[in-house]
Amino acid sequence: MTKETVEMFFQTITPYAIRIAGKLVIAVIVLAVGFKLAKLLVKLLSKSKALSKMDPSVSSFLNSFLSIAVKAIVIITVAGILGIPMTSFITILGSMAVAIGLSLQGSLSNIAGGLIILIFKPFVIGNYISVDGVEGSVTEIGLYYTHLTTVDNQKIVIPNAVASNNTLVNVTHQTTRRVDLSVTTSYDTDVDTVKDILLGIADAHSKVLKTPSEPMARLAEHGDSALVFTFRCWCKSEDYWDVRFDLLESIKVAFDKRGISIPYPQLDVHLDK
What is the pLDDT of residues 35-81, one digit of tens each? Predict the structure, then answer.
């Protein structure tokens, strides 16, 4: 290769290299600035009055969605700067979307599950739920996952697909809950006496409600070694465990004072000679 050929090659390629380098620099700058602006925009939108008036679970989901959407727009803009034809780029994106969709079916189902949760609202942020063997208070509903905090302050992350496709118990959805207790006494105990004691304990508790129904105590079963009473009363959902524990303690104290025994299972064995 002669010197003249090399010089001609560089004279020909240099303008193209300069244009490509310029586009590349601009594309990198746009990508970096665009991602920064996207982050800032999502942050500003999250603090806007429109989103602040929405349900926390909806605003959390929208923030995640907006972040991805804005970044996608930045990437498409960068592709245009680099001179990639939009039709070709969209075709490539479509092919990538199909391939990614097939490999990330679980993630897509989580997104669909998040939309189902937001539309039908089986729970919202702040509810205490039980699903798929775990339970806790909902602290965040994201694009892919729902976050819970347990009563002993552990964090649990549940895929939205699991939360939307499994049987779910929303413990705090209603404002009131019924406390159901089974109380056992010996067979020689007077039934009316036990009922009076149980109802008196309920009446004396400040957190026991009279609505939607009065406290109830009835003989429910003749057990193998004891009489079984059903004791029910209503309270606010947030007071459930306090009321339950208080009632159990009060029943034991009241029975001890009245000489009423709480029997344990017994088995009589008869031996034939």
Answer: 787 777 777 766 766 656 566 656 666 677 777 777 777 777 777 77
Length of the chain: 273
Most confident of 41-45, 122-126, 265-269: 122-126
Separation between Cα atoms, residue 33 and residue 66, nearest integer Å: 17
How does the average pLDDT of the chain come out, rounded?
82
Contact 183, 234 (CB under 8 A): no
* Beta-strand pair 227-236/155-159: unpaired
Helix or strand run (H / E) with residue 135:
strand 134-141
Tokens representing 267 are 């088995």
Interval 235-254 mean pLDDT = 96
The residue type found at 152 is D
Domains of the chain: 3-103 (1.10.287), 115-170 (2.30.30.60), 176-258 (3.30.70.100)
Residue 215 neighbours by CB under 8 Å, 6+ apart:
198, 199, 202, 203, 208, 231, 232, 233, 234
Per the listing, tokens 């079963």 go with 221
Model-level pTM?
0.59
Residue 164: other Cβ atoms inside 10 A: 21
Q: What is the DSSP letter of 170?
A: E
